[in-house]
Amino acid sequence: MRSLLDALQEGRLIELPTSDKHKALELLAVLIEAVPGIAKMDIVKGVLEREEQANTALGKGIACPHVRVRQDGELLCAVGWSRQGIDYGAPDGQPVHLVIMYYVPDSERNTYLKEVSGLAKGVMNADNIDLYHETADIDSIRNKILDWIDIAVSKSGPDATARMIRLEAKQASIPAVSEMPLPLQAVQWEVTPFMLISFEGGERRVLSQEEELTKIIERDCIPLMAKNNGQLPNEVDGFQISVASQTTYSLGRIIYNCIAIRHRHNK
Description:
2 domains; Mannitol-specific EII, Chain A; about 25% strand
């Protein structure tokens, strides 16, 4: 389950700002394409071609699309949670709420099959599997994924306890997305982390290294939040907005770690 744990640590778990299948896959592909060392290819095209051959929904609201590449490298994934659900054409007819996209080098095919098999076992053995799409925030989704990994690892051998201790230590050390030195510059996309701080009474402030993005969020996004019970809009001025994590503090203060994605030609 190493690549899934790495995705949680490295900020590749986001709340999808769209319920459109193609757009959701495109956003996850961008996160993978931004990782250093990834082959220069159209990942979303490869994923969609695979989807035409066989739908990758596992059932119970989960899908694992993937693209295979003929080269060595690391197995990688990116995870998207859809609050409203995606019409994915799943065999059980249910909307998909969790999309785990894999980038699979030839040398990692067996690792990929083992990870997906382990994930499926963890999901099938988990209680209340259909409740996660009702969860209020993405941090609860992260915890549920860790629960599934726990179940999968606990069934994999006698050294499971030691591995889970390392898992818990690794998860506890995960920094906020906006604090990570993420190499988030794909060829055709801008992927910019930013932090939004919400204070009691409705006041909100943006922290970002990008002045243009800060101005756009404060000008357009924050007023929309005030009209929508504090929910971030899915899109603003050409940016797709995704929440990677949120933390609630005393006095009603909340910090949202977010990612803004847009095509470079929108600049």
